[in-house]
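hey so i finaly got around to running the thing on Aspartate/glutamate racemase family protein from Yinghuangia aomiensis. pasting the sequence first so u can double check i didnt mess up the copy paste, my clipboard has been acting weird all day
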Amino acid sequence: MTVALIDSGLGLLPTAGWLRRLAPSADLLLLLDPDGMPWGSKSARFVTERLLAAGEIAVERGAQALVVPCNTATVTAIDALRANFEPGIPVIGTVPAVKPAAGAGAPVAVWATVRTTESDYQKRLIAEHADGVPVFPVACPGLAEAVDRGDTAATDRAVAAAIEQTPRACSSIVLGCTHYPLVASQIMRGLPAATLYDSAEAVARQTLRRLDARPGDSGEPGRVDVILSGRPGALPPAASRYPVGRALATAAAMPLDFLTPAVSAPCSTSDTLLLE
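ok and heres what it spat out for the C-alpha cells, dont ask me to read them lol
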C-alpha cells in the first residue's frame, strides 16, 4: 500500500506521522514543493497546477491514495484534484477541526493562515458546524513559514501575536494549519489552560478507511520516499527540528509522543470534517 501526501512544505509531517503510527507497513510518498512554496500567497491557479502535477507524479509512482494535508490547498484545489483522479484514486482533503472543538461547548478560536481565515469555506464550516458556539477566527501571518524554516524565534513571535488576538474566553483552539501541530508545545506554553484540536489523526484514519485498510496492519516497515518539486530528494533539514520529522527521515517507528504533543485530537468519522 502506497499513500502519497502532497503539500508545499512541512505541513504534511503530522499526517504522515499518524499514517506511520497507524499503518507502519504502508509506503509513504512525501511530495513537497520547495520551488513553489509558500502556497498561501500564490494564486488559486498556481496552487491547483502544482497539486495536479504532484498528483500525476504520485500516481506514476504507484500511489493508491492522494492526501492533501494542507487546509489552504484543500480549500483552493481539492475539487480539481478529485476531478482528475477519482474514483480510481481516493483523494482525501484536510479542513480545520471546527466541529469537534465546538462540541466541547466553550468559545473556540480558529488559528489559520490568512488565506484559510478569509476563505468562504472556513466561514461556511463555522456557520454550519459551530452549533451556536462562539467562534473567533485568528489569522496567523508568518507562523507556517517560521515553522517550515525551523525558526524557533520567529515561531515564538508569531505564536505570541496569535495569542494576543485570541479572546481570553476561548478555551478551545483549532489548529487550522497543518504546520501548527509541529509547535504545539510552544503554543501550550502561552495557553496552558487551552485544549488544542487538529485534524491529522482523523485524516490518517480516513485515508485508511478509503483504502479498506485497518490500523495496525503488521508487516515489514514501509518505505518513506521524498519528492521535491518533481525531483527525488530528502526531507529539508528543518524537518529534523521536529521529532516526527526525524523519525520519518529515517523511516523509523513512530512513537505516540512524537505526534502533536499536548494536543487533544478527537478523531471524527464525519465526512463534513474531512471533506471526504
